[in-house]
Design brief:
With about 400 residues, the chain is α/β, with parallel strands linked by helices. The chain folds into two domains: about 1-130 and about 325-360, 3-Layer(aba) Sandwich (Rossmann fold); about 135-320, Dihydrodipicolinate Reductase, domain 2. Helix content is about 40%, strand content about 25%. The strands form three sheets. It has a seven-stranded parallel β-sheet with strand order 3-2-1-4-5-6-15, sandwiched between helices. Strands 10-11-12-7-13-14-16 form a seven-stranded mixed β-sheet, covered by helices on one side. It has a two-stranded antiparallel sheet with strand order 8-9.
């Protein structure tokens, strides 16, 4: 099988290097605007990869490049700018498509392109990373516990370390994405339908066995994906777990963006500079804020509410360990999704999100060997699921 990998950044590099280790992948093309970056990633792909330069804004050139490949793996962000145009090229080229799209609006737009993809004879799976991605597969596990599901929420935690050697916060497409999804309006499922609402709403979250704590809403693809995959759910949000002091800072940045005083890029650079220049006093205050917001929660997780055997219940799922660092936690799940395709496990045509396209048990079994932070968990017991009945 021949794979085209778009994007030679940290997440694209981890996806490509992981793909190179699978026997089913025989050839790869690593494409990036920066040829040197593409060559560097190709050089780490076990002799299976060639490098080339491409601009994803050159639709004709990109479509031509895609032809002759079995699938395109898209790691070029920000996805609110590039996801739909790149999928459009894949449909025109008749090439299967995978990405790590972490923006809700293009996720919805791509899902609506399902008939076009099906007519082209291809399948496209959008949002296979950490969150979305691992969270979507956790949602599939949670959903399977209920006879009826009314709510399904995803969350990611910026209080906790991502690895023993956390990656430095640097300006990137991911930072611009973060600013986009903390400002303006976001998509959430309320009363059984997607609606535009303001982000950074404070919510009291109950985690079974741990207790209550405040979290804040943020724009992310999971509510779009969950409401699309499970249309019977009535409510779905994505939450950020963070100290209340940090939430206040994000609200100030979002206010400046909404008032037109900062662009998304300017706000992102200001955030990065703030993190670099944070004082010891600010750090201590954030820690104190976090203590009052406790309990501590997992790095990322999914919570569902509904009925089990006629009783109201809450079910939460997380993974006991994860790939260390966000680049690995995003790139490796993407490669596993492509691997399931290469193994012939995915039969659908059209556009889908991971929870509908992939086998959750097989996904977590394959992910487990890469999950070493904070310590390795048994390969056949990587997912932690807890439930609690409510009166």
């Amino acid at each position: 099988m021949k794979i085209l990998c778009l994007g030679a950044g940290s997440m694209g590099a981890l996806a490509a290097e992981t793909l190179a280790g699978f026997d089913e992948i025989h050839q790869m093309t690593i494409a990036d605007l920066n040829l040197d970056s593409a060559k560097r990633v190709a050089g780490a792909c076990l002799g299976k990869a060639a490098a080339c330069a491409v601009s994803v804004e050159d639709a004709e050139g990109l479509t031509t490049l895609m032809r002759g490949h079995d699938a395109v793996v898209n790691c070029v962000g920000p996805f609110f700018r590039f996801a739909v145009p790149i999928l459009t090229c894949a449909i025109r080229a008749g090439v299967n498509y995978f990405d790590i799209c972490d923006d809700p609006e293009p996720t919805l737009d791509m899902l609506k392109m399902g008939k076009e993809a099906e007519a082209a004879g291809i399948m496209a799976i959008v949002g296979i990373g950490a969150t979305p991605g691992i969270t979507n597969m956790l949602a599939a596990k949670v959903y399977g516990k209920f006879q009826r599901v009314s709510e399904l929420h995803a969350a990611w935690n910026i209080e906790e370390k991502e690895s023993d050697a956390p990656e430095a916060v640097v300006y990137s497409a991911a930072i611009v994405h973060w600013m986009q999804q903390c400002s303006g309006k976001i998509l959430e499922c309320r009363d059984g339908r997607l609606q535009e609402v303001k982000p950074l709403e404070e919510v009291k979250l109950h985690y079974p066995g741990l207790g209550d704590r405040p979290v804040w809403t943020v724009g992310h693809p999971e509510p779009v994906a969950f409401s699309w995959s499970y249309p019977e759910i009535e409510k779905s949000s994505c939450y950020m777990v963070m100290p209340s002091m940090t939430a206040d800072y994000f609200k100030k940045l979002a206010g400046k963006i909404d008032a037109g005083r900062l662009t998304l890029e300017e706000a992102g650079r200001q955030l990065v500079d703030e993190v670099k220049n944070i004082s010891l006093l600010d750090h201590i205050l954030a820690v104190i804020s976090g203590i009052f917001d406790r309990p501590r929660l997992p790095m990322f997780f999914v919570i569902g509410k509904g009925e089990i055997e006629g009783r109201r219940a809450t079910v939460a799922a997380t993974i006991k360990a994860s790939p260390p660092g966000m680049a690995r936690a995003t790139g490796i799940p993407l490669a596993i999704g492509v691997h399931q395709f290469a193994q012939g496990r995915i039969k659908l045509k059209g556009v889908a999100t991971p929870e509908k396209a992939l086998d959750a048990d097989a996904f977590f079994l394959e992910l487990a060997p890469y999950c070493t932070f904070p310590s390795r968990a048994p390969n056949d017991d990587i997912v932690d699921i807890v439930q609690e009945f409510r009166e």
